[in-house]
Design a protein that fits this description.
- By secondary structure, the chain is α+β, with helices and mostly antiparallel strands.
- Among the domains are: 333 residues, Rossmann fold; 97 residues, no CATH class.
- Helices cover 19% and strands 31% of the residues.
- The strands form eight sheets. It has an eight-stranded mixed β-sheet. Strands 5, 6, 7, 8 and 9 form a five-stranded antiparallel β-sheet that branches.
- The radius of gyration is 25 Å and the shape is globular.
- The relative contact order is 0.11.
Length: 720
């Protein structure tokens, strides 16, 4: 995956710069800081204002008699010892990262594959993050590990402080269960590294440690070759991109024969870039780059039998070949990928490729079919590819969790809104195209009286928009059902059926209805579905969302008084637009870790990397569109808004907390009520451990219950 993805009018600009935008009548709160002060993420004035908002929000919502029950229900689900594991194949064993009440920060542990079907697999703890954090007095969050193949004994463990995207990389010995004494240690930064050999790394990070080798998005555009015991300042640069790029990333691919290929991915934009093979890394001199003739909007997924496996998000006509439609999965020669190409799979109009995993001999692919999960195993049969469909449940989400390049095994997860996650293993019995359920999670809420259905709404341009509705079986279509609706609508990401016990316990079991819309901008139907909602086409995304809301009302499922919406990140932008464009449609709006100032987002946190998705103010037509939809700039004193619940994180170094702060401050200046909660930890995920997640979800549950299950909803305690 790409490194970055692993993540005004002139008068208005003048008023912001002057600070007059946030002037307001006197109140019991501290004076609202101006824009500059709120933009100082850890500034004293901003944090003082945040504390005041947090105290008011928590003081009101926590005092509700339902809060304690919501919190306990959420926490017990999140820390349940029978939750589904997420295993990974590593050095001949199975590894898993696990968090529970005894290990809130988590433990990295391993066992043997054969034990996974046992009730107690016999885990051995290898790295205890709680103990490490206590010993080093750091708020460490585990962010995974990059291991030296094929033995996978030595790994670079990524540790984040409080959940931010920036990480520290430290060399770890999986056999000894210890960090390597005087091993590789790369200090905190937005960085990525892969192993060349036992004593050499390819590292993408800020070479000068002063930001001069970071793009405008805050990611590195220089890749260096770092030898053991060599200071970072003396690492040899092997390739440099441009400061205007999104990022430059090193990759390593390994196939069934032990062949290792080193790649450089230059992300010129979020969706477009180039790949190069790095040759001569083992010769002691300067490695050479060989740029590959591949589509700009393509993503290399792996290597099988010496051939590249990649997906393309644009139509591609290789030299001397036929056109390959966007969304296809293809195989290409490593030596001449622009000419020697064959198609593994081309989705039809109802399908979309989701996950791709490579085993010793196969390519395992999860696919959406009308937003329902399925999976296939592909193997090369002479000059063509043979496809076998795996026997998995319908109305579910299927993810390829991990694959084993030493065998044809792959871990898949299967889950649905009311179906707890199941762990499946492919290639069982030594046969391709077979799958066996080896583990399942017991239900964490009572779904016996609930059902899942799929409907379609008609958007403003006639496009049919799919959505799922989770509801009581005996639900009446009398317009009185409390509905929580969500969607994403961006970056070709897809909201698919997900088992969320906190939603089950805090919402569904209390009579709530849950709706998930597959709006454009996502990947529900492949690249074209995404492209239809990109840049200046983005109003379609919002119109799709509004169409689903209206469809719920027209079917008699709910009414505006009982309809609430929730969105995070890009979905937070969606919720913000819905809040400002159609405030009359909803009675509750949850806006989480959001983008809201779309006229300035490119200069905030990692915002510059998303110009390929949203458009740029440097392009007149795109600026004009951003002016039309930017939620912050469209708040009006004369408009009646539902009371929103806004949440973010101080440690979010991807979107950043400033969007949410400015939006709440503008509401405050207009005398509009709101709830605001800013977690001081957790990064863009919003929270870092189960207790923090349970706390935030319990606050939301009280808010939603008041707003949607008690008539017009209470505004007590909401800031004005």
């Amino acid at each position: 995956m790409s490194f970055s993805a692993r993540l005004l009018s002139a008068a208005f600009a003048v008023s912001l710069a002057a600070g007059s935008f946030f002037s307001c009548p006197a109140s019991a709160d501290p004076v609202i800081p101006d824009r500059a002060a709120l933009s100082e993420v850890n500034g004293a004035a901003a944090l003082g204002w945040v504390r005041a908002q947090n105290q008011r929000t928590a003081g009101d919502l926590e005092s509700d008699p339902r809060y304690d029950g919501f919190y306990r229900d959420a926490l017990s689900a999140l820390e349940n010892p029978e939750r589904m594991i997420r295993p990974r194949f590593l050095n001949g064993r199975v590894w898993d990262f696990w968090q529970d009440a005894h290990h809130p920060r988590g433990i990295w542990r391993n066992t043997v594959l054969a034990s996974l079907s046992n009730a107690l697999p016999g885990w051995t703890t290898r790295l205890d993050i709680d103990a490490l954090a206590a010993r080093e007095k750091k708020d460490w969050v585990f962010r995974g590990a990059e291991c030296l193949e094929p033995e996978e004994r030595f790994c670079l463990v990524a540790l984040s402080e409080s959940g931010e995207d920036a990480v520290t990389l430290r060399e770890y010995d999986t056999r000894a269960g210890l960090f390597v004494l005087h091993g590789f240690t790369l200090p905190r930064g937005r960085q990525q590294a892969v192993w060349v050999d036992r004593d050499t790394l390819l590292v993408a990070r800020d070479q000068a440690e002063d930001g001069s080798f970071l793009t405008a998005s805050g990611y590195p555009f220089s890749v260096q070759l770092l030898r053991r015991d060599q200071p970072l300042s003396q690492a040899h640069e092997v390739v440099r991109g441009e400061k205007t790029d999104v990022a430059l990333t090193p990759l390593v691919l390994t196939d069934d024969d032990g062949r290792r290929v080193f790649l450089i991915h230059r992300e010129v934009t979020f969706f477009g870039g180039r790949y190069a093979v790095l040759e001569g890394t083992d010769q002691g001199g300067t490695p050479a780059l060989r740029w590959l003739d591949l589509p700009s909007r393509s993503e290399i997924q792996g290597l099988v039998h010496g051939r590249l496996v990649l997906t393309t998000a644009e139509d591609w006509t290789p030299q001397g070949g036929a056109k390959i439609p966007a969304g296809s999965l293809v195989s290409a020669s490593l030596s001449d990928p622009g000419r020697d190409v064959d198609v593994i799979f081309t989705p039809d109009a109802t399908q979309s490729v989701q996950d791709v995993g490579i085993t010793r001999n196969t390519v395992v692919v999860s696919v959406l079919e009308n937003v329902r999960g399925a999976a296939f195993v592909f193997s090369r049969d002479g000059a063509s590819w043979k496809k076998l469909r795996l026997p998995l449940p319908d109305m579910s989400t299927v993810h390829v969790l991990d694959t084993d390049r030493a065998s044809d095994h792959a871990f898949l997860t299967v889950e649905g809104y009311l179906t707890p996650p199941e762990l499946w293993l492919t290639g069982t019995g030594g046969s391709q195209g077979t799958a066996e359920k080896i583990r399942e999670m017991p239900p964490l809420f009572d779904a016996s009286a609930m059902t899942v259905r799929q409907f379609r709404a008609t958007s403003s341009d006639g496009t049919k928009i799919p959505y799922f509705i989770v509801s009581p079986k005996d639900m009446r279509n009398d317009g009185g059902n409390p509905v929580l609706m969500t969607a994403y609508g961006g970056f070709q990401a897809t909201y698919t059926p997900l088992y969320a016990p906190e939603i089950g316990r805090l919402w569904l079991q209390h009579g709530g209805v849950y709706v998930v819309a597959g709006i454009r901008g996502g990947g529900e139907y492949g690249p074209a579905w995404h492209e239809a909602g990109r840049k200046t086409h983005r109003q379609r995304v919002y119109d799709d969302f509004f169409a689903v809301g209206r469809d719920l009302v027209s079917r008699g499922i709910t009414s505006a008084a009982h309809l609430g919406i929730r969105g995070r990140s890009n979905g937070g932008l969606l919720a913000g637009v819905a809040f400002t464009q159609h405030p009359e449609m909803w009675n509750a709006v949850i806006i989480g870790v959001p983008l809201l100032d779309m006229l300035n987002y490119e200069t905030m946190a990692a915002g510059a990397s998303w110009a390929d998705e949203y458009g740029s103010v440097s392009v007149p037509a795109e600026k004009a569109f951003l002016q039309k939809i930017s939620p912050l700039q469209h708040l009006r004193k004369e408009t009646d808004y539902p009371v929103p619940f806004i949440f973010t994180s101080t440690k979010d170094d991807r979107v950043g907390p400033v969007h949410a702060r400015l939006f709440a401050a503008r509401l405050k200046a207009l005398g509009k009520p709101f709830f605001y909660y800013e977690d001081t930890e957790g990064g863009h995920s919003g929270t870092a451990n189960a207790k923090e997640i349970a706390h935030e979800r319990a606050l939301e549950a009280v808010y939603l219950t008041r707003r949607l299950m008690e008539g017009a909803g209470a505004t007590k305690g909401a800031g004005k």
